[in-house]
Amino acid sequence: MVPFAGYEMPVQYKGISIEHNAVRNSVGIFDVSHMGEFIVKGKGAFELIQKVTSNDISVLKEGDAQYSCMPNLDGGIIDDLLVYNLGSDSYMLVVNASNIDKDWNWIQSQNHFGAELHNISDRTALLAVQGPKAEALLQKFTSVDLSGIRYYTFKRGVFDEVPNVILSATGYTGAGGFELYFENVHARKIWKSLIEAGPEFGLEPAGLGARDTLRLEMGFCLYGNDIDDTTNPLEAGLGWITKLKKDFTASDKILKIKQEGLKRKLVGFEMLGPSIPRSHYKIKNDLGEEIGEVRSGTQSPSLKIGIGLGYVDMKYLESGKPIFIDIRGQLQEAKIMNLPFLKKPNA
Description:
Layout lengths: L1 E3 L2 E3 L6 H10 L1 E5 L4 E6 L3 H8 L12 E7 L5 E11 L2 E6 L4 H10 L6 E4 L4 E7 L3 H6 L14 E6 L2 E7 L8 E7 L3 H11 L5 E3 L2 H10 L33 H10 L3 E8 L10 E3 L5 E10 L6 E8 H6 L3 E5 L2 E8 L10
Helix pairs in contact: 1-6
């Protein structure tokens, strides 16, 4: 257990590799109740969310979820988040635990539209049940047809005799599965039920360590590492959630960045030797000149090699020359890779 964003969080239970492989091959369960949840509803809810997020929520039907980010006034990223369309002019925003207060204060400050805001973070539990056997495990506890819930959609129903549970086909592992949102008074009961039913499906409880290796194999950004208030969504590879045809916070500045061209870009890389890259290691050229910085790095349990994400000067990237990671004064060669690293994860 370690302190994390004001919470006590498990890094691992049986071990990162065991938990990682369970999610890839069978099923794992993460208690991620530390995440933040805001309800935005009523008159002006649509306009407020459309203004503060970079993606376009006009495409969301009731029951749809969307990945997005909230830019700051300079075009940096306040946070990345999920937007859920709950219907009847009501939305749920799911934000990172370390940013709950920052995000809440920002959204309140931008609410010039008369939307009704509720911070339900402290009373909402969230379990992520991830892996190819997640659906079979969860189906034992609900009459909702989980096979009919498409990726990035959700349904509400009774789960383990608990009413009004959001069953969302989302997750940050690339292994398929669901995320369950419900009143936190039921968290102990639902966790216990799943753990007791789990052996049949190879269920393992999983901690922050496996959560990080799983997301990194998919090339998913982690706030505080790969994206933050100083990085813009275009250089972070998040142009696909940045809809510049609509007006949102700093959209004009982000459009100008696009027109002028990026100065750096977040790339994925694999180590060519046995070394493991770590956050803040310097990325250099063959002359030892600094051209970037590692933001995330680990030993991939699935691929058995060192992988990482880092920002590299755009001019150097365009040269096509190799990159090197400075590991304790030694330049170790790495190969830039297309994301995701794991090309055919279970899903």
